[in-house]
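Annotated sample (chain length 228).
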Amino acid sequence: MSPRRRDAPPGPTEAARLADDLRGRILSGELAAGTPLREEALASTAGLSRHTVRTALARLATERLVIQEAYRGIRVTSFTAEDVRALQELRCALEAEAVRLTRERYGQSWPEEVTAPFQKAMLELERVASTHPDDWRLVATAHAAVHRALVATAGSPRIEEAYARLDSEMLLLLVNLRPTYSAEEVANDHRAFLNEVQVDGESAVRRHLDHGTQQIWPRSARGIDADH
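Output written by the structure step:
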């Protein structure tokens, strides 16, 4: 008797493929902030139904990479100074709570098994900063991994899940509103950050993120909406 054939795992749907393609083009800057994304044009170009395109755009909307506004349709997300402030405040709330929980468990000196993922992410950030200092998408991606590793020290799946939902929006912010400091400075700031949060806890998180906000503020303050 021949062995029972196992069905191959299902591949990504057409909507997922289109979402992946558009996400890559948005985060690379090919589709700039404010670029309109019209269902009919996308469907024609990709050879897909408008329903499939609508599903793909809905995925990107949940990541806040695109927004839909009445009478303006769907467009690539752009940031005002208020958007930057709100995003950083949410990051701060999640990171500060993660650090509080970790310090509650381990005090001011965290064991190596807890800090190892952070150290690994830091090595990658330093490598990228050294080898690709002008590729801000790579730098931003490595930077995000460092912060995710810090949040993971708390061992709270719910906090990690909530923080992971900010990934795409944060990458878009950093790619389009490139901070005024260099990739090397980003790496140096984060190397000190791990030591600071163990000693100073939540206040170190606030200082770090406030510093980051100030680095992008000169550009974010000139966002699409001049009233913000």
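Annotation: The CA atoms of residues 177 and 193 lie 22 Å apart.
Annotation: The two ends are 72 Å apart (CA to CA).
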